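Our consortium's second objective concerns turning raw sequence data into structural hypotheses that experimental partners can test. To show how far this objective has progressed, the report includes one record in full. It was chosen at random from the queue rather than selected for favorable results. The single chain below, 266 residues long, was entered without modification.
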Amino acid sequence: MRASLLQVDVNSQEPVAERRERVAALVRDQAGSDLVVLPELWAVGAFAYETFDAEAEAAAGGPTAEAMASAAAEAGVWLHAGSIVERDPDGTLYNTSLVFGPDGALHGTYRKIHRFGFDEGEAVMMGGGQDLVTVQLPDAVMGLAICYDLRFPEMFRRLTDDGATLLILPAGWPARRRGHWSLLGRARAVENQAYVLACCSAGTTGGVEQAGHSQVVDPWGEVLAEAGEGEQVLTVELDPGKVAATRKEFPVLRDRVLGLDLPKRD
């Protein structure tokens, strides 16, 4: 399985419509890959809060969804389109991931559960998702998460329990916490014995420099590829059988005790 992570520059000087068109072209250029992954909120910028309301769109039929569906079909790839600012019919905004198939159809959506901001920004502007989401690919199962979710290991363990073998994480992670980004991505891979595909944006959004350094980590925690700080396409060959082989060779997951349905203590 060939996976391509598109580390997109989210410079606020580039109009949203132009970036959408440019990224669609980048996706079309990935014909030959099986899976393409984009960063979190790449169209508007993860910290460009002042644009969220004006640029919010429907998960199906909105301008980003339409552009990404078309690009996925033209390239013949599975496309994890990062995330958009979704406006629900009731008016609530969500940070929502969209997954398109090679047929251009929408095969999965995930609303970000853990909202960042500590009572500011995203945490107060957006609703929180409630559901864990996996998407079946021909040779793997994607578990979906977004950015700040990375800090909550119990979420990834539940995705693993739901069959995930690829943990997909689009992000707009700040450069000042780049060390956490790299470390936590490796940790989630090791503890769940799964591939982690962590795609971060580059550039500066809302005055916040982005971490870049997208990475692909294998089930043993080995970094197969890591981007630099600027816009970059990271392409890696994945072995879908390696997850099962790793879990068989080192069957740590079967020794879990805490987190299972244990009897309550008196």
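The partners drew two points from this record. The chain has one domain: 2-254. Residues 178-192 form the longest helix (15 residues). Both points have been shared with the crystallography group to help prioritize constructs.
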